[in-house]
Amino acid sequence: MPLKILEDKERALFGGALVGDNAVRFIYIDEAGTSALEPVSVVVGIIIHADNQWMLVKSKVAEVLDAVPDHYRPDFVFHAKNVWGDRKYREKWNRSDRLTLLHKMMSIPRELRLPIALGIVRRNHPPPDSFPPSLSEHELHHAYAFWLCVCQADKFLRNHAGSKEVATVVAEDVPKMRTFLREILSVPELAFPSPQLTFTPKQVSINPVGEFRITRILDTIHFVEKKQAPLLQIADACAYGFRRHFAEKELGDDFVTSIIGKPSNIRDDLRNPSSGLLIRFEEGDSEERKLS
Questions:
Q1: Which of 23, 45, 43 is nearest to 34 (CA)?
Q2: Cα–Cα distance between 273 and 105 in angstroms, integer?
Q3: How far apart are CA 41 and CA 121, in angstroms?
Q4: How many CA atoms lie within 13 A of 53 on its CB side?
Q5: How far apart are CA 39 and CA 27, in angstroms?
Q6: Residue 287's pLDDT band (boundaries 50, 70, 90)?
Q7: pTM score, two decimals?
Q8: Could you tell me the maximum CA-CA distance found in the chain, to the nearest angstrom?
Q9: Which phi-psi region, left, alpha or beta, contains residue 256 (left: φ > 0; alpha: ψ -120 to 50)?
Q10: The pLDDT of residue 86 is above 80
Q11: Burial environment of residue 191 by CB neighbours within 10 A (0 to 12, 13 to 18, 19 or more)
Q12: Cα–Cα distance between 239 and 146 in angstroms, integer?
């Protein structure tokens, strides 16, 4: 898999001290709703163990993509937004089959019990002042959603991974995104005051816990073309599903049901201008979820 490395330092993402040295996790990152006209920015990270899960997940993505019609396959690259809305797909690929493919791609984390880290920032959030002032307001929201997402991924590593395990972020190799991430990662170590969100199926509690810092994610981002990194396509699908859910768009609730396995009140619970969320699926029960 060809990789382009942004930086290579023995530091954590955003410049803090790195705790651990066993790089066996990947965090496949994608985003949705980052333009100025969207009501909410969403960044999703799918957390995968390189040794134990990578080949299985890759095979599952290939299985889902087998449903792409033959006449689209030669140059097909999965982008959920295009599959659903692009005219060239609507003309010769019926709505029901396209919708089935989206639901199947979104359900992979639940089926294979892959943790999902999520950052959500609404347009009514005051622009964070810790990022470069050269960014526009919606870019600042995107940057903050990215930070919230990787904080939740780091939280998973601290609480549920091996004591020395660290992770590497993998993102799509889009020139604009490379420039954007390089700019926001160039600031000094970030530590925002942030609430701890704890979820159960019946209630939500929000408790101040001081500051979040990144300690278990390498200060290295691997940029890959999406066609050469099929696991990025899962993050793309889930980001699209969550964005439609939080923006209250058609099919958004159905998409989130596919992601977490049952109807959810996530949008109603997360009415704050910004939120971070970690979704874990219980071992032995692909339908049960833990939101923390």
A1: 43
A2: 28
A3: 5
A4: 18
A5: 25
A6: very low
A7: 0.88
A8: 54
A9: alpha
A10: yes
A11: middle
A12: 12
Residues 85 and 213: their CA atoms lie apart, in Å, by 38
29 vs 184: CA distance, rounded Å: 15
Asked if 235 and 259 count as a contact pair (C-beta separation under 8 A), the reply is no
The secondary structure of residue 2, as a DSSP letter, is: -
Residue 203 token pair: 């209630």
Contacts of 238 (CB under 8 A, 6+ apart): 30, 44, 46, 106, 109, 116, 259
Where are the alpha helices (H) located in the chain, listed in sequence order?
54-65, 80-85, 87-92, 95-106, 108-112, 137-160, 175-184, 232-246, 252-260, 266-269
Phi then psi for residue 57, to 5 deg, are -65, -40
Q: Are 37 and 140 in contact (CB under 8 A)?
A: no
Tokens representing 2 are 């060809």
R_g over Cα of the chain: 18
| Six token digits for residue 23 | 């790089």
CA distances from 197 to 64, 275, 281 (A): 33, 8, 17
The tokens describing 109, both together, are 């984390």
Q: What share of the chain is helix, strand, coil (3-state, %, to 5)?
A: 40, 25, 35
Quick: pLDDT tens for 134-189. 889 999 999 999 999 999 999 999 999 999 999 999 999 988 888 888 888 876 65
In 3D, which of 91, 93, 68 has the Cα closest to residue 78?
68
Q: Which residue has the tokens 């939740």?
A: 152
Separation CA 179–CA 134 (nearest Å): 13
Which residue, among 116, 106, 193, 195, has the nearest Cα to 160 in the 3D structure? 116
Name the nearest CA neighbour of 85 among 196, 251, 200. 251
